Every structure is written in structure tokens, then in C-alpha cells.
Amino acid sequence: MNFLAILLFSASVTCDNLIIGLSYGARKIKICFLSNLIVGMISCLGTLGGMYIGNLFDGFCVGSIAQYIGSALLFLFGIYMFYQSFRKHLKTKNDREILDDAANVAEQFDMDHSKSIDLREACMLGFFLCINNFGLGIGAALTGLNIYLTSITCLILSIFFIELGCRLTYNLLSQNTVKYAEYVASIMIILLALYQLIS
């Protein structure tokens, strides 16, 4: 069991949570621990569901074929994520626009404009964030990552990143974090795919 690979995967799939936290901190939107926990649990279930399906596929593969398929899936996901980030940045005129877009997406989940994320809004946010976790979880399971330890690590990092983002930006929004977080996440997925392939 390689905990470094699990940590790398979990950090990359919960990177969006940090951006959400930074955006909420910038807009002074509060998210209590219970709401944060719900977001993390739904993200965890997304990872768990994807990895469970990956394990089912693994049962039909012979030898190291599953690991090759899983690594290829993660690599393609990483390339796609990098392309999407690059394409989005090409469409924006400046850094301020990138920050505003991220903050506007996050603010959409404060549907009652109360400047606080309640439990229902937390559920919606959790489902939004777990979409990537599900797809990437399939590839991660095929490469041999432990399904339960990976899901729990995603839960912990999801809660940590949102809380960290909110605390960091009550006074200052970290522009470079928002600007480059998606690039870093995609590169981590690509590196993980290559690492799992040769390990």
C-alpha cells in the first residue's frame, strides 16, 4: 500500500475544495463545520462509488492489465483537466476575471443569499464537487489504490481545504492559488498515473 500515491490522488481530486474555500472567504460566505462535513462526506462517497466500480472491473482483468488501464485513464483525465484549465484561461482577459469566475461559481450555492451555506446548500455543493471524484476514483481503483483509505483521505482533505481556504481569505484572496490550482491538480494526476504505471 503506497500512502504517498493515495495522498497525491486525494489532494488532486479535492483541489477544487480549496478554490471554493478561497472564494467563500473572499465573499465573506460562512460555512459551518457540519455543512463542511456534509460536503466532505458526499465527496468521499463519490470517490468510494467510483473506486467500487473500478474494483468490479478489476475482477475481470488478468494480471497487470487493470493497472495499465487505470494508469491510462488517470493520465487521460489529467490531460483533459489540464486542457480545460488552459482553455478557460485563454478565454479570460485577466487574473481578476479568473478570480471572479471562481467566486461566482462558489456563490451560486448560497442560493438564499444569506452569506452562509446551510445543510441543503452543502448537499448541492457536495454533489457538484464529487463529480470528478467519481470518474477519477474508477481509474485510481484500477491502479491498486486502497478504496477505503483513499476515500477517508479525500474526506479529511476536503474538510481541511475548504476550512483553510475560508480562513486564508477573510483578509486576502490568494490569486496565484486560484489561478494555478487546477493546473497543479491535473499535473498531480498525470504524475500519479505515470508513478502507478512503473511502480
List keywords for this structure.
cell membrane, globular, single chain, two-stranded parallel sheet, 199 residues, 2 strands
Strand order of the largest sheet: 1-2
Distance between the termini: 11 Å
Give a count of the beta strands, DSSP E runs of length 2 or more.
2
Give a quick account of the main beta sheet: strands, pairing sense, barrel closure.
Answer: 2 strands, parallel
Percent of residues in beta strands = under 5%
Keywords: Cell membrane, Membrane, Transmembrane, Transmembrane helix
InterPro entries: Mntp/YtaF, Spore_YtaF
Organism: Turicibacter faecis
Protein name: Sporulation membrane protein YtaF
Notes on the structure:
With 199 residues, this protein is mainly alpha-helical. It has one domain. The protein contains eight helices and two strands. It has a two-stranded parallel ribbon. It is globular and about 55 Å long. The chain starts with a helix and ends with a helix. Keywords: Cell membrane, Membrane, Transmembrane, Transmembrane helix. InterPro entries: Mntp/YtaF, Spore_YtaF.
Question: What are the SSEs and their pairings?
Answer:
Blueprint: H1 3-13, H2 15-27, E1 30-31, H3 33-58, H4 65-91, H5 95-107, E2 116-117, H6 119-142, H7 147-168, H8 175-198
Parallel strand pairs: 1-2
Helix pairs in contact: 1-7, 1-8, 2-5, 2-7, 2-8, 3-6, 3-7, 4-6, 4-8
Q: Could you give a short description of this structure?
A:
This protein is 80% helix and 2% strand. The chain is mostly helical and 199 residues long.
